[in-house]
Amino acid sequence: MLETLLKTDPPMTVEDVMDKCDGIYLCFKDKNSTFLWCNENFARLTGQTKDDIIGKVDQRAEHVKFDQQVMASGKPVLNLHESITVPDGQGGMREVQIVTQKGLLRQPGTGDIIGITVCFALQESADDWIGKLGLKQIDLGGYFAPAADSGDSALKFALPERYNGDRRHYSTNYYLLRDPQVLQLHSLNQDEQWFYHAGNPIRLHCFTPDGRYLTMDVGSDLSRGQALQAVAPHGSWFGGEILEGGYGLFGCSLAPGWAPADSLRPTVQQLAQLKAQFPQQADVIGRLSTPAL
């Protein structure tokens, strides 16, 4: 298999090359999720040999389910953020984040879809980002660090009455949330703009002052209804939770810039009122008003 010789010195087969791609993990599966081939990197990551894997059915239900969806759609998927559980080298298992490309394996001549190709690379871990960006855990849930802000200020008289003093023209920050933490319900004086950076998407749940319930999935997979950026309107109660496990890293921007007096947490009475106003979302409200782990 994959025995075509390439004119390298010494000569290498295509399989040799694919086995030696640093940082790239490859496998091919048929329509029944049986592994047709994998490279050495994939086998080592999963704590197995190639012979252990090739010819066996993939037992990871979530991955198989999505493979089937991709094959049924007839469309490849690029830059999918997902998780994979692998041995930790100490007798246990750990979950790592990966960025995956899923292509379609077609029958020569007919073009019929006969399987799927999977190519992925490891992502930075949540702890990597926390260390690199100096993120600190906050009471609302998740991890936060300030980023750029304006050196100039808007004076109080030029701002809406809800502001109790001068504010910087804008402020920005980094925010990381990892499952099973949630971003708890809170409200801001400013519209908060959210920008996807890395990891899995976040679903923002927003309860607006005019009685609407909105959800916004901030992530990289636009084909699945996600958006690279979204806005939580000022005066709304909103919170969020990570989709698909793992973690997500985001940027947030507020104008005028944020000050502690601009944040509000709901009281017990306000949460009860919110559940009464939005009975179909009572479970969501309950999840987002539980202290973060």
From TrEMBL:
Q: Name one Pfam family in it.
A: Cupin_5
The taxonomy runs: Bacteria, Pseudomonadati, Pseudomonadota, Betaproteobacteria, Burkholderiales
Note the InterPro entries from the entry.
Answer: Cupin_DUF985, PAS, PAS-like_dom_sf, RmlC-like_jellyroll, RmlC_Cupin_sf, YML079W-like
Q: Which SUPFAM superfamilies match?
A: PYP-like sensor domain (PAS domain), RmlC-like cupins
- Organism equals Pseudoduganella ginsengisoli
Q: Where are the transmembrane segments?
A: none
Q: Where is the PAS domain?
A: 30-56
Q: Give the protein's recorded name.
A: PAS domain-containing protein
